[in-house]
Write a structure and sequence with these properties.
Structural class: mainly alpha
Strand content: under 5%
Order of helices and strands: HHHHHHHH
Largest sheet: none
Number of strands: 0
Length: 169
């Protein structure tokens, strides 16, 4: 809404006869506010898609917003920028230590390990292998302890063994 108002030239706004007019200082303030909030708008649009997974985007969005807000050069809204930094850390900072979000980003074919440096990528690969081995061993244990007829068909068990061989090598 602010961008829409700023897109209208001052001359046209003054001709509307509105009781309140924007001063040049207020226009500069609003332009800077739009500059500050644009990365947050972009991030919001990214995660609001109806038919896509957004968990893989959490780490990227946090890293991107943190970088962009640290790089901002503002004149009027320094307190707002500091508040946004604190809020970003409080709300999304924990996602960096949550393996689920990191693994989701890693498993997303459009992201993979592009967000990691080389030492972090090795650590992430090891976490993925460890989680996959835990999952496969839990499926194997569950299928052995199952006494009912609704156990998985043999073909699924063969796939599980193939996956286990893949993970071991």
């Amino acid at each position: 809404m602010i961008m829409s108002i700023l897109a209208v030239p001052e001359e046209k706004l003054s001709k509307t006869g509105a009781s309140v007019q924007l001063s040049p200082y207020e226009r500069k303030l609003l332009k800077e506010l739009c500059y500050i909030l644009t990365p947050f708008e972009d991030a919001t649009i990214m995660v609001q898609k109806d038919k896509s997974v957004s968990a893989s985007l959490v780490v990227l969005i946090y890293m991107g917003l943190t970088h962009q807000i640290n790089e901002l050069s503002v004149t009027y809204n320094n307190k707002l920028v500091q508040t946004l930094k604190l809020s970003l850390e409080k709300r999304l900072g924990g996602s960096m230590s949550d393996d689920n979000f990191s693994l989701a980003a890693m498993l997303d074919p459009t992201i993979k390990l592009r967000w990691c440096n080389s030492s972090d990528s090795m650590e992430m690969e090891n976490k993925l292998l460890l989680n996959a081995k835990k999952y496969i061993s839990s499926i194997h244990v569950d299928s052995e302890s199952c006494d009912t007829d609704d156990s998985p068909p043999q073909k699924s068990l063969e796939l599980t063994h193939q996956h286990q061989e893949f993970l071991v090598s």
